[in-house]
Amino acid sequence: MLMTKFKAAAAALAFAAAPAAADVDLQFYFPVAVGGAAADTIEELTAQYIAENEGVNIEAIYAGSYQDTVAKALTAARGGNAPQLSVILSVDMFTLLDEDLLLPFDDFATSEDDKAWLNSFYPAFMENSKTDGKTYGIPFQRSTPVLYWNKEAFAAAGLDPNTPPTTWDETIEMGKKLTLRDDAGNVSQWGVRIPSSGFPYWLFQGLTTQNNAILANADGNEVNFDDPKVVEALQYLVDLSKEHEVMAPGIIEWGATPKAFFEGQTAMMWTSTGNLTNVRDNAPFDFGVAMLPGHERRGAPTGGGNFYLFKGASDEQAKAAFDFVKWISEPEQSAKWTIATGYVAPRPATWDTETMKSYAADFPAVLVARDQLEHAVAELSTYENQRVTRVFNDALAAAITGQKTAEAALKDAQAQADEILQAYR
């Protein structure tokens, strides 16, 4: 675990006098696995906050992946040493509530200005941030999956390089033209790549949403895994490889997907808008970004992490943590974060800044995920979330690898999830 004192970074910002001892010390758990630019930008922003708020010191604990971060936060909390704030997946809200670890932001947003701020985030992101009339998460490192396509590959296949697929059928039709095979049948370029490892349920939720299915209720205690529309979506995913042969067979790795795109192994890919800056910096060809193709409707899940306030903090610590979260989500700070990482600025006010207007004018692709929020739904989130999503991911893998039919895999997953969630109904 890497730890860093941001006060030292603040001092390096040309403050000549050594800062006085902090009146309030905060611990901040951050999932550093999202990439170097994210960690560097968090450090810069936090150093700026400390420099502007004498008496506050923030120790960032870089806790690894999202899964590592929630595990370490839970372990620390159970040992009586919870952080005061952390960025953790929005879908872990029910898990944190089940452990009785969270403070609602509503308790601190008492002024009219604070209340206006609390209501200033995109509604699609707030679906995974509120329950029972209370706000427990503040959207920060948020995303949706989007479609990236190689314009040069499209042109070489005789397709309009500026027109990506907008439907499931078009994905298949274009995918066939984009899949390149030699005389022996060896594929050098696949039409499309939809990862099925890492976060398989998340990208698959794009398909279920497009087929007008909702995977879980808002209370986090019911799932609809065996809905016929979910079965149909899974069959479509399987058929991209088995029937239509426009996607590689078997489990497709999440982490290797951008590299496969850069190297021409796939002409299209589905991945997070959080990869947007990475793609811009590393794609050796002209590329496009679009909303996910639709079917019965457009649709995608939201994703990513929220800020959470943890119980166990002193009044001074809790107030300072709240103030920091409010400050870092203000438009200028949020704009800096979005430009550095590609994550979606979660407040309309950020997009109204001259900073973001200028950036979007130069790089219009950044607007795609924002505009897709109109069609977005809450990411799959339940009580016992990691157990339930593991059951669902296993079902997807069983169908993708041919161990079970789509219908049988999802029927089994429904039964297992029902057993897990029965206690919360």
From TrEMBL:
Q: Does the keyword ATP-binding apply?
A: no
CDD domains per the record? Answer: PBP2_UgpB
**Protein name, per record:** sn-glycerol-3-phosphate-binding periplasmic protein UgpB
Q: Which organism is it from?
A: Tritonibacter horizontis
Please state where this protein is localized.
Periplasm
Which controlled-vocabulary keywords does the entry list? Signal
Signal peptide, first to last residue: 1-22
Which InterPro entries does the record cross-reference, listed alphabetically?
A: Bact_solute-bd_prot1, SBP
Primary location recorded for the protein, binned into one broad class: periplasm
Q: Name one Pfam family in it.
A: SBP_bac_8
Q: Which GO terms describe its cellular component?
A: periplasmic space
Task: Say which family it is in.
Answer: Belongs to the bacterial solute-binding protein 1 family.
Q: Which SUPFAM superfamilies match?
A: Periplasmic binding protein-like II
Entry superkingdom: Bacteria
